[in-house]
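Service request form, structural biology core

Requester: graduate student, group of Dr. S.
Request type: structure prediction, single chain
Budget code: on file
Notes: please return the result as structure tokens.

Sequence provided:
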Amino acid sequence: MKSHVRVLALFVLLGALVLSACGGAAASTEVFSEPAAMEAPAVAEEPIPQSAADEAAKQEAESSSSIPEGAVFNTGSESPAAAGNHLIIKNGDIKLLVEDTDVAIDRATQVVGDAGGYIVSSRVWYQPYYDGKNYRYATITIGVPVQQFERTLSRLRGLAVQVLDETASGEDVTNQFVDLQSQLTNLEATRDRIKSFLEQSQNVDEALRINQELSNVEAQIEQIKGQMNYLQDRSAYSTITINFEPVLPEILPTPSPEPNIWQPGETFEHAAGTLTRAYQGIIDFLIWVFVVFLPIVAPPVLLIWLLFKLFTRKPKKPTQS
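Core staff response, request fulfilled:
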């Protein structure tokens, strides 16, 4: 019976320790002290030393209450970023109008190499234009050291005929990184405490359950280390997305035909003008006929007609007396 009570009290203590890892320093002190008090009357044969629990709680409170400036815990990353320095994730997006897309891509690759960066991704495609030709477009995402961010943007502007659009932003993740460091410290203290319980386990079943709790805490530690590594890497290298657009020839658009609207007043004006011009033409023709044509044609016609009458006239028959 005493063995079951002891195991039950031990797991209550383990649960309280896991909860204390996610809380503050004050909460962790209370968790360590209360289960110890509960365990004292139940475990009479081999009590856990109270001085060791108090010392672990004291060390945990001191480590969580103050973080040394510039200290970085070993998270598996070789980045020199420190908690005392500001961690800022910088991102940029720039759209460039270039004469030749291929030449601009080669020069941008040279700029990235000079800055000590790398190409994250690239995409090239073609689009047709009104003149029937296909023009090349491209998008490149690069990563450059944060110290070279502004200088790289300046050099990229020099590759363009015109900068169509440019956006730069930064995100300060210093507080997030410090919080992760605090959580990592608490979880590592909890892991060490659970390991001490594992060494004091009395049977295989008790050791397996304690080992399961130890695995859960170590999984949380690895997850937090991964988040810290990601923040360090992202703050050490800035991301810039470059969009290249070629210069397109100017083509005047074809004007669209205006709709034909019925205007009776304008039609009447056109009709009246046409009638007036018709009468003017008739009168002009008659003037030419009477002034020019008749004086020239009438005398010869009259003479020919008289001669014709003269030669075709029949002689008169003699009359009988």
